[in-house]
Design goal:
four-stranded antiparallel beta sheet, 54% strand, elongated, WD40_rpt, WD40_repeat_CS
Length: 609
């Protein structure tokens, strides 16, 4: 039995030059955001408790709770809206094809009976409102000529719908059935977000022309605008009202969030500016915000969620980071406490503490892409898609000095001798490179196509796996390799090889979905018939006491085998990561962490039968 005990969630998907919409439910204090084809429900007071809805077949753009909190409507880039329940396994209520292009925003009416959606209509309508149970259209939305970025329902009667978009317009519709009433052209650039105040008296629109304009919600007339004194110096991407309707929160490409006091006459002035604490690069631009209960939530372009306290905005915010792309390596560092390091293709390395979750991002001076990563207490070594191998010293949570060496072609695999960490083995297409203290000892052409390699903890032995499925065992002395044995059992190219922590065995896995555990001294097969995946095996990990082996595969499963027992007594975790499992590491003898295509990391507790 393996049960899920923790999930370290991914970050929301963001896009340069566009705002993203996060929404929430004040009653359960949860927020909703989207990444790839999944919707994430994240509870602010329980950061490790995350629910994921993954039934969309296209990337999801926006999701919203219904007013009573029982249903969620989520929309994707193909113009489909799915309405599903928040309880009992997210039962699907309805699916409607609403627009012919991407949906950018959707809103429930305050009585929960109608939904309005807007986006890119590809020449047809850009806005549509429909009944939530039957999907029948309620009203006619003319007046937009380009993609509509945001829409909102007035929360009180008489109902109104406001919409805004890339044609610089803010349009009013009254109903139901809804029909065009008037439009405003005060903005001189894309209008990114539009929101009615909770009491239904005012409406605010914010735009890339750095302005925010406030309208009377009932008549649609312009009342005033946000003062330009101490205002934003970049595009404003999103706006959110406070619960009492007296303040708004805005976020902008100038990397700041501002709290504005809104007066009765419809003007607003800055009451507080929230500076960003990041490195000051492009990834610190703020693209989304939400004011919920006592929390001010901002989202940056790198996907970092900052939680400020509304009553004391000067207090240091709580930062929740996560990966946005496939997490392809996991490794464990044991210094004073156990820390999991995870890295993804886009070059971000994050630290996680088991039991508490996110504990910081590793700030590196260069943010090159990462394919392989190995770590000891003092340093990490990485290789990516250029020909370089990097060594970065670790100082607590800061990355120290980084040095690199060019190994001549793209590294396939990287491994470090744990007991003499200055010795490393890098495998290339046609051979291997031995590194000592980041200098090339020797570049050895082995005469076959190499796919995986590993060096023994004491640096005396190396195992190299080939495209032909053979395992070649070499003894290492100085700068030369001498072939000792060749093991044939695999029927596909080798994908990963790992020594057991006690150095008495090693395990190998191939692209033809088979794994094998070997005895190191006699070279005999110790555990075979490990053929229970349905696709290639991407990763493999040993438990610290060398009694269990876990494998992770493209088929979304993690399988845990006990070395002393037959392979049929395995433990399988199905659908651990939609899209495939790419990283595995044991935290201790009974907890294993896995990562994958869905950019999340999950910790499973193994309970022996």
């Amino acid at each position: 039995m393996a049960s899920l005990i923790e999930t370290y969630a991914c970050a929301p998907s963001t896009e340069r030059g566009r705002g993203i919409l996060i929404s929430g439910d004040p009653k359960t204090n949860s927020i909703l955001y989207c990444n790839a084809r999944s919707v994430f429900i994240r509870y602010l007071d329980r950061p490790l408790h995350i629910a994921v809805y993954g039934d969309h077949s296209y990337p999801v753009t926006v999701a919203r709770y219904s007013p009573n909190g029982e249903w969620i409507a989520s929309a994707d880039v193909s113009g489909i809206i799915r309405i599903w329940g928040t309880h009992n396994d997210f039962v699907l209520k309805n699916e409607f094809k609403v627009l012919s292009g991407r949906i950018d925003d959707l809103q429930w009416s305050p009585d929960g009976l109608r939904i309005v959606a807007c986006g890119d209509g590809k020449g047809k309508s850009f806005v549509r409102a429909f009944m939530w149970d039957s999907g029948s259209t309620v009203g006619d939305f003319d007046g937009h000529s380009k993609r509509v970025l945001s829409c909102h329902f007035k929360p009180t009667r008489p109902f109104r719908i406001a919409s805004c978009g890339e044609d610089f317009l803010v349009n009013f519709y009254e109903g139901p059935p809804f029909k065009f009433k008037l439009s405003h052209r005060e903005h001189s650039n894309f209008v990114n977000c539009i929101r009615f105040s909770p009491d239904g008296s005012k409406l605010i629109s914010v735009s890339s022309d750095k302005k925010g304009i406030i309208y009377d919600a009932k008549t649609g007339d312009t009342m005033g605008q946000l003062s330009s004194e101490d205002g934003h110096t970049g595009s404003i991407y999103a706006v959110s009202w406070s619960g009492d309707g007296k303040h708004v929160l805005t976020v902008s490409a100038d990397k700041t969030a501002k709290i504005w006091e809104i007066f009765e006459d419809g003007t607003g002035k800055v009451s507080k500016t929230l500076e960003c604490s990041g490195s000051g690069g492009v990834e610190d631009m703020l693209v989304g915000c939400l004011w919920q209960n006592g929390h001010l939530i901002t989202v940056s372009l790198s996907g970092t969620i900052n939680l400020y306290s509304a009553s004391d905005p000067d207090k240091q915010p709580l930062c929740l980071s996560g990966h946005m792309k496939n997490v392809n390596t996991l490794t464990l560092i044991e210094s004073n406490e156990k820390i999991i390091l995870s890295s993804s293709f886009d070059g971000s390395i994050l630290r996680w503490t088991p039991g508490t979750g996110h504990s910081g991002k590793l700030q590196r001076k260069d943010s090159s892409q990462i394919k392989c990563l190995v770590a000891t207490k003092e340093e990490i070594m990485t290789s990516g898609y250029d020909n370089k191998v990097w060594r970065i010293s670790l100082d607590q949570d800061k990355a120290g000095e980084a040095e690199h060496i060019d190994v001549g072609s793209q590294p396939k695999d990287l491994s470090q001798a744990i007991n003499s960490p200055d010795l490393a083995l890098v495998s290339l297409d046609s051979g291997v490179v031995l590194l000592k203290d980041m200098q090339i000892l020797s570049n050895i052409n082995l005469g076959f196509s190499v796919t995986a390699s590993v060096i023994a903890p004491d640096g005396s032995e190396a195992i190299v796996g080939g495209q032909d499925g053979k395992l070649h065992i070499y003894s290492v002395s100085g700068d030369s390799l001498t072939e000792e044995a060749t093991l044939e059992k695999h029927r596909g190219p080798i994908s990963v090889i790992r020594y057991s922590p006690d150095f008495s065995m090693f395990a190998s896995a191939d692209l033809n979905r088979e794994a094998v555990v070997w005895d190191r001294t006699s070279k005999e097969v110790k555990l075979n018939n490990m053929l229970f995946h349905t696709a290639r095996i991407n990763c493999l990990a040993w438990s610290p006491n060398s009694t269990m082996v876990a494998t992770g595969s493209l088929d979304t499963c993690v399988i845990i085998y006990e070395v002393g027992k037959p392979a049929s007594s395995r433990i399988t975790v199905k659908n651990a990561h939609p899209g495939g499992v790419y990283g595995l590491v044991f935290i201790d003898a009974c907890n294993v962490a896995s990562s994958g295509e869905d950019a999340c990391i999950r910790v499973w507790k193994i309970v022996q039968q």
